[in-house]
Amino acid sequence: MSLRVILSLNEVDATAKKAARGAGYPWGLAEEAARATRWLCAQGQDGCGALAGLLCITDSQVDAFAPARSGTGWVGDGPVCPIQMGAALADFASDLKAGPVHVPPVRAPRLLLPFLAVIAEIMETSVEANWNSGTVTVAQGAEMMGDLPDPCRLTLSLTAAAIPSRAVLRVVPKPEDWAMLTTFAHRTYAPATAASRLKGAGAGLSDND
To answer: Organism's domain of life (predicted)?
Structure first.
């Protein structure tokens, strides 16, 4: 039986970054994925589960989930990646000054929330995301009404609501989600060679006993 592990936010960040890289994300986006996962965990949300689910979908085909800019809006050939969508939205945060921004269907949409927090900081206010059956308001933290479907089509707008951050310092992910992240992370490790084994700990080819 798998045992639950208690992790620090730093441990989550480091493994999430390697996991995203192992799934084919370039280092810059892997770092964004790690920050997003850490932010969700710090808010008491299941960041590890969200990232594990996303990587199983986008594994080795990250480019297929990239959004494209169309005028002042966004489109995708299908549901888009929240990491790529979030990074793009942050780059064009000022679009929200002109009115609501429509986002194409997003996979693992919870991972978009940390990027909305970045936008809220840039715009010095809060961001509200609406979908058919709910809404979430994001500033330093997030307050949600309704369940986020996956995928989810969102409409973003600015709001004055103040949402404080939480301060969760320890994370207890589901064992199967943590195992999935570590499996992806292991892809970034170089396989052992005869030369690396000789340079590592141990007697190498000699036996001094």
So the answer is: Bacteria
Provide the domain limits for residue 60: 7-188
Domain assignment present for residue 204? The answer is no
Bridge partners (DSSP) listed for residue 134: 131
How would you write the pLDDT of the chain (209 residues) with one tens digit per residue? 567 899 999 999 999 999 999 999 999 999 999 999 999 999 999 999 999 999 999 999 999 999 999 887 899 999 999 999 999 999 999 999 999 999 999 999 999 999 999 999 999 999 999 999 999 999 999 999 999 999 999 999 999 988 999 989 999 999 999 999 999 999 999 775 555 445 444 444 444 44
**pTM for this structure?**
0.89
Task: Tell me the two tokens of residue 19.
Answer: 């996991």
Count of domains in the chain? Answer: 1
Tell me how far CA of residue 21 lies from CA of 28, 72, 81, 123, in angstroms: 9, 30, 14, 30
